[in-house]
């Protein structure tokens, strides 16, 4: 068996994310590990912060390199037979636009879903 496993960190409390992960689990070739952000130990200092993991999709490549945002999504889908459909999102002419769309969507999803947490952090900073 090939030891080259990528690990995809996802928000298991997000219905849209959970649906995509179910699809990826079914379609992937076996070298993609799935890690629910909410089940990760707070003591693992090798991981980005909980907030960073929730704000953008993170994938830890088998080399130890972190891939974040749209490139993480493309890399995750490259573990399926449909990966070729996502690769054009990284082309130089398409990437700047696709990346901005992804970032706006990710920011909006985070702010809607975690607005209470954001409000609590803002109140704590002001105190």
Automatic annotation (TrEMBL):
<protein>
    <submittedName>
        <fullName>Thiol-disulfide oxidoreductase</fullName>
    </submittedName>
</protein>
<dbReference type="GO" id="GO:0015035">
    <property type="term" value="F:protein-disulfide reductase activity"/>
</dbReference>
<dbReference type="Pfam" id="PF04134">
    <property type="entry name" value="DCC1-like"/>
</dbReference>
<dbReference type="InterPro" id="IPR044691">
    <property type="entry name" value="DCC1_Trx"/>
</dbReference>
<dbReference type="InterPro" id="IPR007263">
    <property type="entry name" value="DCC1-like"/>
</dbReference>
């Amino acid at each position: 068996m090939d030891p080259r496993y990528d690990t995809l960190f996802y928000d298991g409390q997000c219905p849209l994310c959970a649906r995509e992960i179910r699809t990826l689990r079914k379609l992937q070739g076996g070298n993609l590990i799935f890690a629910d952000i909410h089940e990760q130990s707070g003591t693992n200092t090798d991981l980005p912060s909980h907030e960073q993991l929730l704000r953008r999709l993170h994938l830890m490549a088998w080399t130890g390199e972190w891939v974040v945002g749209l490139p993480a999504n493309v890399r995750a889908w490259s573990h399926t037979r449909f990966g070729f459909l996502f690769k054009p999102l990284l082309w130089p002419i398409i990437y700047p636009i696709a990346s901005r769309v992804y970032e706006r969507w990710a920011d909006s999803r985070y702010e809607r879903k975690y607005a209470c947490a954001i409000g609590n952090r803002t109140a704590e900073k002001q105190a």
